[in-house]
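User: I'm curious whether this sequence folds into something compact or stays loose and floppy. Could you predict its structure so I can see for myself?
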Amino acid sequence: MYICNMKNKIIDIAKCIGRDLNSRIVVRDLYDKIINENMTHVIIDFSNVNFATRSFMDEFYNIFVVNTEIYVELINLSSDIKAMLEAVKSTQHRSEKISKKISSTTDIKFTTISEANKFLEALSF
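Assistant: Here's the prediction. I'll summarize afterward.
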């Protein structure tokens, strides 16, 4: 991870992590650094980010967006980054609903391949 200036509570994620965001681990590292600095409100600036993988955004969503321990404001997200974040957000809700309906001992039966595919697409790993 790059040296990250957090004094003004605006975090340039490209300078802290890099322009291509592709690792779940760096999300946790950034979160730990923020917590260690006792910050409860941060602004994360995506202005110089080229790309973010779905796995990065999934981890970012779960650690930063839905986390209530700190207030996070996201700024300067490109349309691609916004789209990836929305895709992750939409799968988070479907997975929750499915997991509530099905226990680990329940048999799941499908009448068509299409039904099975819809179920599998809703799962997040």
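Summary: Residues 94-103 have pLDDT under 50 and may be disordered. Residues 10-122 form a domain with the Transcription Regulator spoIIAA fold (CATH 3.30.750).
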